[in-house]
Design a protein that fits this description.
Layout: H1 2-7, H2 9-22, E1 34-38, H3 41-53, E2 62-65, E3 78-84, H4 90-99, E4 105-110, H5 113-122, E5 125-128, H6 140-153, H7 160-174, H8 176-190, E6 194-200, H9 204-216, E7 223-227, E8 245-251, H10 257-270, E9 276-281, H11 287-309, H12 317-327
Parallel strand pairs: 1-2, 1-3, 3-4, 4-5, 6-7, 6-8, 8-9
Length: about 325
């Protein structure tokens, strides 16, 4: 099942554009000076991508919260986006309830649930995405694209993102066979090891996404860190042989030159302690195009890891158990 969802990623992006084009986002009654997004898991990571995509163009701060409480700076001059695929995420609902008293411009992105019901009842702006996907983490495209459309509708970014997403769709479709072949090769090398994922800070959301997908689809533990920050701490931890670890570097050919040098030095040092070091380079021109390419490749890596493990990539019984136990309290 998960493989079929992953295979629909390019089509999902195209559908997300169609939904975004039809969305109606009204101006706020007050000037907007900042953006706060509440979302967790597969819905929250979308906001991380948007934050990275608009970093150099958006004139106001864009922050993401992944918990129960909103920061004190959320006020009437804030665009507050609630992103929850189900519309019933406990933490996001709690954040939404706190937002109501702030006077913020609240916009909902969900497939249904309590959040969409609240938006309709209170006359809040919302974008409703399809509800026929059995796994929220497979709906990343909807989350990212709708938030980009919200930012564009309110005048904080231009419309160049649309062409970049369309280019990403074309690239993924054109390179589909190579993407899957590359993903399988990586999975074959790391399926019996602990993956350690490194990237530059510019594309940390891709590293986070890959970590989360390996966790949920591959049913494996792994971790990630970013360069240059890890050069100031984690690098010192590489002091002994770790044949059980596979180190993956997510890279762009246009990464900051200084960071490219850091990566090369990192690999020389870590190569003394790990026998498995893998470079995965993006394809594409814009950051959006490169990111979606690596996301898609990473999703396939996680799928092939589930195949190696003989696991059901969709299954999240332990999370369901956690939610059931919380419901008792």
């Amino acid at each position: 099942m998960m493989d079929k969802l992953i295979a629909r990623f390019a089509d999902q992006l195209a559908e997300a554009i169609e939904i975004g084009e039809k969305a109606v986002i009204k101006p706020h009654t007050q000037p907007i000076h900042k953006v706060y997004v509440a979302g967790l898991g597969g819905s929250g990571i979308g906001a991380d991508f948007v934050k990275a995509f608009i970093k150099k163009s958006c004139p106001i701060p864009y922050t993401v919260g992944k918990g129960y409480t909103i920061p004190a700076y959320v006020d009437e001059n804030t665009l507050a986006i609630c992103s929850s695929y189900s519309g019933n995420t406990e933490e996001t609902l709690e954040s939404y309830n706190q937002m109501l008293a702030t006077g913020a411009k609240i916009v909902i992105v969900a497939s249904g649930g309590k959040l969409i019901a609240e938006a309709k009842e209170r006359g809040l702006d919302y974008i409703q995405v399809p509800d026929n996907w059995p796994s929220p983490r497979a709906c990343l495209g909807y989350s990212i694209v709708q938030q980009m459309y919200i930012m564009h509708a309110l005048g904080f970014i231009d419309d160049s993102f649309k062409a970049n997403i369309k280019s990403a769709i074309d690239l993924i479709k054109f390179d589909n066979d190579d993407i899957r072949a590359s993903a399988k090769q990586v999975a074959d090398r790391i399926h019996n090891k602990i993956p350690v994922i490194y990237s530059t800070d510019r594309i940390e959301p891709i590293a986070v996404r890959l970590r989360q997908q390996i966790n949920e689809n591959g049913k494996m533990l792994c971790w990630h860190h970013v360069i240059p920050e890890m050069n100031h701490n984690e690098l010192v931890g590489w002091t002994e042989k770790h044949p059980d670890m596979a180190v993956i570097y997510l890279r762009n050919s246009d990464d900051l030159k200084r960071n490219q040098v850091r990566i090369e030095i990192n690999q020389e040092i870590i190569g003394r302690y790990s026998d498995t070091i893998i470079d995965i380079f993006s394809k594409g021109n814009s950051l959006i195009e490169k990111s979606f390419y690596l996301v898609h490749l990473g999703d396939w890596i996680s799928w092939y890891l589930s195949v190696h493990k003989g696991a059901d990539a969709i299954e999240i019984d332990v999370i369901d158990y956690l939610k059931a136990e919380l419901a008792k309290v």
